[in-house]
């Protein structure tokens, strides 16, 4: 492992630039994974990072040491003070992977279960949705241009490694995707009358989820195959979009599993 | 409506003190509701605030004006610059209700469906859980001492008014509550083997949800009637606690509704 101790080191300066600018990271086609859980998930599910960066203090942590041991890619240690400027996580463990942002090849059409995000803005919500999708066995996520940037540190952190089991497509024209879809597209809406429990979810279907305040845009609602609602009880009218997503994805998985058990 | 324009006005100084200190609010037995949605929900579901505070600029907003029109309690307008120091919401609409924090009388025992929060720390998660509970028809929430403060601005904002249809009990000894419970207590755990779909949820049951990282504490897990899991598919091992809560609450509502339809 290399050791860098000067703020003027060119590699450190480049890292600091990338860590401080999501635009610079995007331009470089790279992402930063922060902390033990994300780095471990990356090693388990994807492979080696471009570079492993660790603070001198963190090397004493057995979990960090175990991860660094598995890294065959270039690795650099930094004094804690230099590392601090790279991480957005307060009181975090000082471990970063610089990785190539996956750029999966987009299929010609939507032919499997997927999640379509139409302007979901809160990074915590977007990350929670990716995490639920990954846990429910959904493999593809398509995001409209107005959706939170999926490879930003906050979305990565909230998704807890789900990124590495998903194919994520950003800046997608969702209208075009829905028009050519070969699976039903179910738009969730508090104003819909069809209950999710009355739709056959045992076959592949795509979920269309909208902006926290405004919901799915009218243009896309009109293109969807179904407009569905999670039936409520009581005076609270709506769910958080990530909570709504979890209920939908796991109802789909429940129906799929029940059908398999019956077959 | 009174108009206050001086930073030295005693009422303004008291408000600023309360807005800046959750401890001062707690001591006063009051909460601050920020924004149109929360204030409207409070008027609809509870009644009049102790005091309504609005910025001069916000009075031009028709939604704000409609709410202010419904207020018979004392109301005060402030110049925008003075109001800014009271609100934590960036780019928010300048409307605040100062309200008495509800102090519902705690029942002798747990006899209905409820949510038990054991150290849920993130205010966004706590708020989302309250919102889902309110939407699923659950009426009671019991929080351990280590759980996020439910009447803090972030939890209030995330719950979108669910507070006003719930009875919320904070600083509860959950072990004691579970020992004397007259309904089954279901602890969610990624390590459990009993699937939520295999438990009879058509009758009242309480959900025990744990800390974001560590889950439900072992002591409480051992007291619970059931340890249940949401079956997953794929390599992502766990759900966000608020997503998990939503799946559980709505599975309960689904089973209750299905049973009613069959009866």
TrEMBL record, chains A, B:
Domain tRNA/rRNA methyltransferase SpoU type: 114-249
A biological process term (GO) from this entry: RNA processing
GO molecular function list: RNA binding; RNA methyltransferase activity
Entry keyword annotation includes Amino-acid biosynthesis: no
Source organism superkingdom: Bacteria
UniProt entry keywords in alphabetical sequence: Methyltransferase, Transferase
Database matches in PANTHER family: RRNA METHYLTRANSFERASE 3, RRNA METHYLTRANSFERASE 3, MITOCHONDRIAL
UniProt-recorded name of the protein: RNA methyltransferase
Organism: Massilia cellulosiltytica
Source organism phylogeny: Bacteria, Pseudomonadati, Pseudomonadota, Betaproteobacteria, Burkholderiales
């Amino acid at each position: 492992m290399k050791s860098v101790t000067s703020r003027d080191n060119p590699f450190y300066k480049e890292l600091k630039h990338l860590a401080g600018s999501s635009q610079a990271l995007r331009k470089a086609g790279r992402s930063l994974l922060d902390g033990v859980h994300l780095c471990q998930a990356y090693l388990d599910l994807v492979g080696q990072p471009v570079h492993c960066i660790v603070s001198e203090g963190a090397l004493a942590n057995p979990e960090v040491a175990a991860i660094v041991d598995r890294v065959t890619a270039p690795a650099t240690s930094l004094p804690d003070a230099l590392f601090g400027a790279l991480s957005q996580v307060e009181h975090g463990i000082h471990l970063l992977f610089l990785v190539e942002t996956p750029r999966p090849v987009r299929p010609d059409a939507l032919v499997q279960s997927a999640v379509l995000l139409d302007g979901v803005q809160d990074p915590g919500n977007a990350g929670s949705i990716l995490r639920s999708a990954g846990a429910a066995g959904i493999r593809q996520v398509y995001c409209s241009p107005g959706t939170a940037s999926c490879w930003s540190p906050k979305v990565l952190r909230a998704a807890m490694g789900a990124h590495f089991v998903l194919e994520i497509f950003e800046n997608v024209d969702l209208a075009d995707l829905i028009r050519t879809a070969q699976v039903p597209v179910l738009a969730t809406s508090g104003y819909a009358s069809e209950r999710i429990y009355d739709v056959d979810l045992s076959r592949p279907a795509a979920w269309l989820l909208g902006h926290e305040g405004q919901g799915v845009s009218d243009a896309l609602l009109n293109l969807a195959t179904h407009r569905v609602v999670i039936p409520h009880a009581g005076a609270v009218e709506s769910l958080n979009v990530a909570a709504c997503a979890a209920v939908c994805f796991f109802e789909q998985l429940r129906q799929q599993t029940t059908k398999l058990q019956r077959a």
